[in-house]
Amino acid sequence: MKTRIIAGCCMLPLLLVIYFGGWVLWAFDLVIGIMAVYEFYRGFREMDIKPSLPIGIGGAVLLYALNLVACGGRLGDELDYKWLIVWFFACVIVSLLYLFRIEERKLEDGMVTLTGLFYCVFFSFHITLIDQMTDYSILIWLVFITAFGTDVCAYFAGVTLGKHKLCPKISPKKSIEGSVGGILGSTVLSIVFACIFAEELLVHCIVIGVLGGVISQFGDLTASIFKRKMGIKDYGKLIPGHGGIMDRFDSVLFTGPMVFYYILLVLE
Amino acid sequence: MKTRIIAGCCMLPLLLVIYFGGWVLWAFDLVIGIMAVYEFYRGFREMDIKPSLPIGIGGAVLLYALNLVACGGRLGDELDYKWLIVWFFACVIVSLLYLFRIEERKLEDGMVTLTGLFYCVFFSFHITLIDQMTDYSILIWLVFITAFGTDVCAYFAGVTLGKHKLCPKISPKKSIEGSVGGILGSTVLSIVFACIFAEELLVHCIVIGVLGGVISQFGDLTASIFKRKMGIKDYGKLIPGHGGIMDRFDSVLFTGPMVFYYILLVLE
């Protein structure tokens, strides 16, 4: 409990990263993507599946490099999505070619390589994409407010009120009361954010708050499923009491795309 | 041998489909994508991996539907790539959510679902994308000329001259002589095509011919790797002497994207 709070404070530099945006956020996001895919691949060791870390890291670097090319080196401009398609294709092809050493490699090795590129690298990349949506980049805060807000509120609501199990097979400690508390907390925090920083977007912030409360729990549960199947408790030991990057950012992996597609499809 | 030639003639309707393009090609390509993903998923039965066919087919239908939305129902217009990103994200998310029935499903079930969506559906979709590139849609012919040209020329060169094995572990019958013959055949056929139909693109056709000769063999070998690991000889029995759609179109899955990205990155 105490370690959790202390470690939570270690996340404060994140505030600065989001505040500055641009190059700082771009570089931070790239590092998160690489660490996430590294932890994800490592988790499969126990299952005797060997994804390619060079492809994972190379894919992350290529994605962020293409992003620079696409906006002509000036971060903050809108992305030309053409490059993303090229990146997608490259990831699939390289993961398939990885199987060509047919005697050394299982099909799973290639498929986990591919899944990691999309689940860890592509999903976390949406944070950079939001930062580059000039008109609405302020909403990037909601990625983290909904993810961490849900997490903290669900934890306290669950500890104090939790009675009915949510999905004992995936995550035995979670309760329905905690889940509802998480969604409420995410919504209230998003409203507070809107009232102070983005009053004209209040309605959208409420919707994002509710969606974020739900979706961040799906992100959490998805990470739990992988960990259960891998037979590990945590992805890593990077942050004391919080596990690895993937343990801390599992919800952000889902709320990032949610905010991005909300802006792309509803607001733009 | 005789069956092969007869079955080859069954492919003639394909000429009409490419000639008409537009809606005809769009619908044909969708059907190919669905059949390919169906055969691909079925191949994993022997490995006791159960990907989700509803997600595979639903993903294919969604992709082609989004394509219609993106060009406002008027096929032939250029695509707004934004929709492709949304589709990519949707595929990853749904494949992950498929794992939520944690007791019934293995991680492999979700990962094969995802791989099939990208390898079978997304790759074959590039044919429709080329058809929609108004200025260069004529080059769609090279997708098939290089794929089938390589296949046929490699076969005859291999039968008559083949001595040195190409990659016995993946595909024991292939020879280096056949492989070179395939590349030469693909190049010559592409030159003939350019001289008759697209003289102003002759240089590009030569490059595409060489690349197509190489890449279509990678497509062929990729399909062989999957079949070997799955423990099957053919993906299906649809076309007599030619196996299933995936056996016949394995090279097209690779030459389609090659031609598309060549146009996108070099010609446009």
Most extensive interface, chain pair and sizes: A-B, 42 and 41 residues
Strand content of chain A: under 5%
Q: What percent of the residues of chain A sit in helical stretches (DSSP H or I)?
A: over 70%
Question: Could you give the count of β-strands of chain A?
Answer: 2
Which H/E pattern describes the elements of chain A?
Answer: HHHHHHHEEHHHH
Characterise the protein shown here.
The structure is a homodimer of 268-residue chains. By secondary structure, chain A is mostly helical. Helix content of chain A is 72%, strand content 3%. Chain A has helices at 2-10, 12-20, 22-43, 53-70, 82-97, 107-131, 140-161, 176-197, 202-230, 245-249, 252-267, and strands spanning 165-167, 171-175. A two-stranded antiparallel sheet of chain A has the order 1-2. The longest helix of chain A has 29 residues, at 202-230. At the A-B interface, helix 5, helix 6, helix 9 and helix 11 of A face helix 5, helix 6, helix 9 and helix 11 of B.
